[in-house]
Design goal:
Blueprint: H1 4-13, E1 16-20, H2 26-36, E2 39-42, H3 49-53, E3 58-62, H4 68-84, E4 87-91, H5 99-109, E5 115-119, H6 120-126, H7 146-156, E6 159-163, E7 167-170, E8 175-178, H8 191-203, H9 208-227, H10 233-246, H11 249-255, E9 258-261
C-alpha cells in the first residue's frame, strides 16, 4: 500500500489531538506530535474534558497513571468522540495488573474505540484470553496475539494494532504486518504511548485500517533513520524527533515495510 499519502493528508490538516495520557508520557508525546505535524493538547480534568473533547479532531486515552477521576474523564471524552463520529485511540497500559485497570478497560471497549493499540499481552488480556504481562511489559509474542486482535476488532468494530518487533494491524477481517522499527525504540520510555497520538492524527478523516498501518510504518521508519546515528537511548530521542519532522511522504512510500496478511 502507498503510505505517503496518509502522512501528507495528516500534515495538511494538522489536527488537534486531545490526549488523556499518563504523567510520564505527556512531554515526550507532545513533542512527538508537534514533530510529526499534528497539534497536541493534554487535558484531563473532569470539569472540562467534555467541552475540550468537542473542540478536538481526535482523542487518545492511555491508562498508564490511572486514578478514578481520570477514568471518568476518559469515559466522558470517549462518549463525546463517539457521538461526534470522530476517532479515538485506546492504549490499555497494564490491563490485568489490577481490578480497577481491567474494569475500566472493559468499559472503554464498550465505548467503541476507533483503534486499540497495545502490546501482545494487553491485547490477549482485553480479549479474555489470558496473557503474560509484567506490568506494562509484554510476556507474549505478537504472533500469539493475532487471533485475539482479530476477535477484539470484531467486538469494537474498529482496528486493533499489536505493537512489537513486527507490528500486526487488523480490522477483524483484513490485516497487515509492519516491519519498520529499531531496537532502541523500546529503550526510550513512552515512545509507544506517544505513537497513539500519531495514529490518532493519521485517522482523522482517513480510512482507519490503512491510516493506522501508515502511521505505524511512519513511526517505525523514523526510528530506523534515527538509529543510524544514535549512540544509545540518550542520543536516539532527539534524532527520532528530527526524523519524524523531516521524513517526507515520498521517503515513507520508499521505506515502508508493509505486507498484507491473508485472511484468517
Amino acid at each position: 500500500m502507498q503510505t505517503g499519502a496518509y502522512l501528507e493528508q495528516m500534515r495538511a490538516r494538522a489536527p488537534l489531538i486531545h490526549n488523556i495520557t499518563n504523567y510520564v508520557a505527556m512531554n515526550v508525546m507532545a513533542n512527538v506530535l508537534l514533530a510529526a505535524g499534528a497539534a497536541p493538547a493534554m487535558v484531563h480534568a473532569v470539569e472540562e474534558v467534555e467541552e475540550f473533547a468537542a473542540l478536538a479532531q481526535a482523542l487518545t486515552v492511555n491508562i498508564g497513571t490511572l486514578d478514578p477521576d481520570w477514568g471518568e474523564s476518559m469515559l466522558r471524552a470517549a462518549a463525546v468522540m463517539r457521538g461526534a463520529g470522530r476517532s479515538w485511540v485506546f492504549d490499555p497500559v497494564g490491563v490485568g495488573a489490577t481490578r480497577m485497570r481491567t474494569d475500566l478497560s472493559q468499559r472503554l471497549l464498550d465505548a467503541h474505540p476507533a483503534v486499540v493499540r497495545g502490546n501482545a499481552s494487553e491485547v490477549l488480556m482485553l480479549a479474555g484470553l489470558g496473557g503474560q504481562a509484567r506490568g506494562p511489559e509484554s510476556g507474549d509474542t505478537v504472533q500469539a496475539a493475532e487471533g485475539a486482535a482479530r476477535q477484539l476488532a470484531r467486538r469494537t468494530g474498529g482496528v486493533v494494532a499489536v505493537s512489537g518487533p513486527v507490528d500486526f494491524v487488523t480490522d477483524g477481517d483484513r490485516a497487515f504486518r509492519v516491519r519498520n522499527g529499531h531496537a532502541l525504540m523500546p529503550r526510550v520510555t513512552v515512545l509507544g504511548c506517544s505513537l497513539n497520538g500519531v495514529i490518532a492524527g493519521f485517522c482523522v478523516d482517513q480510512p482507519l485500517l490503512e491510516a493506522t498501518v501508515a502511521a505505524m510504518a511512519f513511526y517505525g521508519l523514523a526510528g530506523q533513520i534515527a538509529g543510524q546515528q544514535a549512540q544509545g537511548p540518550g542520543t536516539f530521542q532527539p534524532l527520532f524527533l528530527d526524523a519524524l519532522h523531516n521524513l517526507t511522504p515520498a521517503e515513507l512510500d520508499a521505506g515502508a515495510q508493509v505486507e498484507q496478511v491473508e485472511t484468517a
